[in-house]
Specification:
Elements lengths: L5 H14 L3 H14 L3 H11 L6 H18 L2 H4 L2 H14 L3 H13 L8 H16 L14 H10 L3 H12 L5 H17 L4 H15 L1
Length: 217
């Protein structure tokens, strides 16, 4: 983004105020950015930040919708990488309001647009957020994991003893699972890699083997 743009500059100042817990100042700076916007692109950027400081979930949803509407009006490469986050924000806002079906729709749209986000820590974090939203809005009839899957208890044990190597391998695949076949394969591969090391206690090695077998069934 153009740091010389008034909207971008004011939003950057607002984010700096946020990190220093100057919430009222941050809110005022974001509103100034909204007022300074001269086109739909600037309004889209400003609305994203204004939405962060609303007193009610309904107002948060309204500003997130404004942000999404403005992005649609821009409709070019400048906003292509925004959509995963924009739909994720809409999904979270609907979820806070107890509106599960529209929340699910937006999380699904967010998942479809993750490929437009440049690779890096932000994309990784966003994927985890979208996957969390999909899990929270899953239909009761869905079968996200095989019955009797031991991976949850296994991860709990790894957390309890702070096995960071094992957690670093499994958690990104487990928490970032969007429910697609390629995501399941990613997790199975991580399980196989850890199992092949044969360094975990016997009971945990057995749990790994069962988790792999369930996913291969």
């Amino acid at each position: 983004m153009d740091s010389g743009n008034a909207v971008v500059r004011l939003c950057a100042e607002g984010m700096a105020a946020e990190t220093e817990n100057r919430t009222d100042e941050a809110r005022a700076l974001f509103l100034r950015a909204w007022e300074a916007a001269e086109d739909d692109y600037g309004a889209c950027v400003a609305a994203h930040y204004v939405a962060r400081h609303q007193p009610t979930p309904r107002e948060t949803l309204r500003w997130n919708q404004e942000c999404l509407t403005r992005a649609d009006r821009v409709g070019d490469a400048r906003v292509r990488g925004f959509y995963a986050s924009l739909h994720g924000n809409m999904g979270r806002a609907h979820l806070e309001l107890g509106e599960r079906e529209p929340a699910r729709e937006h999380f699904e749209q967010a998942a479809e647009r993750l490929a437009d986000v440049p690779p890096g820590p932000y994309a990784d974090w966003l994927r985890l957020c979208v996957a969390r939203g999909l899990r929270a809005t899953r239909d009761t009839g869905d079968a996200p994991v095989p019955p009797g899957d031991p991976i949850g208890p296994l991860l709990t044990r790894l957390c309890e003893r702070a096995d960071l190597d094992a957690l670093g391998l499994l958690l990104p695949a487990y928490l970032g699972d969007l429910g697609r076949p390629e995501d399941g394969q990613r997790l199975t591969t991580a399980l196989r890699m850890l199992h092949a090391e044969r360094r975990l206690p016997e009971e945990e090695q057995h749990a790994l083997g069962r988790a792999i077998a369930l996913r291969a069934a």
